[in-house]
Automatic annotation (TrEMBL):
Residues annotated as domain PLAT: 167-257
Protein family: Belongs to the AB hydrolase superfamily. Lipase family.
Species the sequence originates in: Pedionomus torquatus (Plains-wanderer)
Domain of life: Eukaryota
Protein name (database record): Pancreatic lipase-related protein 2
Name of the encoding gene: Pnlip
Species classification: Eukaryota, Metazoa, Chordata, Craniata, Vertebrata
Catalytic reactions on record: 1,2-dioctanoyl-3-O-beta-D-galactosyl-sn-glycerol + H2O = octanoyl-3-(beta-D-galactosyl)-sn-glycerol + octanoate + H(+); 1-(9Z-octadecenoyl)-glycerol + H2O = glycerol + (9Z)-octadecenoate + H(+); di-(9Z)-octadecenoylglycerol + H2O = (9Z-octadecenoyl)-glycerol + (9Z)-octadecenoate + H(+); (9Z-octadecenoyl)-glycerol + H2O = glycerol + (9Z)-octadecenoate + H(+)
GO process annotations (BP): lipid catabolic process
Length: 257
């Protein structure tokens, strides 16, 4: 049984007979997309973990792409009806959009077991354990029977619009060069499964010989990495034409470590 942002008003904190609960089926997986408190945030979904697997994409409260201005959202690509509905309950409705995308991407939406979304963002719940990570949505039941705990909270990030799944990579860059600079570094990943766009991995002070670690939520499953493209920029013209390179770049896949 899959719960798509189960309702909070009148249900949160009620006895298990009244609301969705893991006792309702052999395997209950839940997607929480609108779990901010109803007052004052108007969240329609509940935040407590109630299934065997509880997924909190983007932290479970505010979904990327739902903060668009009202007009652009109402005159949505999918039509005025869809756009108006999204404007009123965008976060809440993301759960079924993620679910429908999950049918198309059996390897997508990996959920990382973590204490909280803040901890997930620091990267300490990366990569997936040796048993793997469950997939949010249609293929969550591949994980049936693999959980030891009563409630497993899982975190992941999604894109702002479809296609929604993202694949998480850890990128570690050691810089080389003569002098310290300010600017940013972008990295693009190339692999057997496809190539990513450029993702910013460092911004601010760029110090040669220093090592920087960042996480990329990539829009494709790169597969086996074959090449990494490294670009840096310092945003203004520097008459000394400084040079900066990468001594090493390490890429780790969240899926298989």
């Amino acid at each position: 049984f899959s719960g798509l942002d189960p309702a909070q008003p009148y249900f949160q904190g009620t006895p298990t007979e009244v609301r969705l609960d893991k006792s309702d089926a052999e395997f209950v997986d839940v997607i929480h997309t609108d779990s901010a408190p109803t007052i004052p945030n108007l969240g329609f979904g509940m935040s407590p973990a109630i299934g065997h697997l509880d997924f909190y994409p983007n932290g479970g409260k505010q979904m990327p792409g739902c903060g668009k201005n009202p007009l652009s959202q109402i005159v949505d690509l999918d039509g005025i009806w869809e756009g108006t509905r999204d404007f009123v309950a965008c976060n809440h409705l993301r759960s079924y959009k993620y679910y429908s995308d999950s049918i198309l991407y059996p390897d997508g939406f990996l959920g990382y077991s973590c204490a909280s979304y803040d901890v997930f963002e620091t990267g300490s719940c990366f990569p997936c354990p040796k048993d793997g990570c469950p997939n949010m949505g249609h293929f969550a039941d591949k994980f049936k029977g693999k959980t030891k705990n009563d409630f497993v909270k899982l975190y992941l990030n999604t894109a702002e619009a479809k296609d929604f799944p993202l694949w998480r990579y850890k990128v570690t860059v050691t810089l080389s060069g003569k002098s310290k600079l300010r600017g940013y570094v972008n990295v693009a990943l190339y692999g057997s499964g496809g190539n990513t766009r450029q993702h910013q991995v460092i911004k601010g002070s760029l110090q040669p010989d220093n090592t920087y670690t960042s996480f990329i939520d990539a829009e494709v499953n790169v597969g086996t990495v074959t090449k990494v493209k490294f670009l840096w920029n310092n945003n203004w013209i520097n008459p000394t034409f400084p040079k900066l390179g990468a001594a090493t770049i390490t890429v780790q896949s969240g899926e298989n470590g």
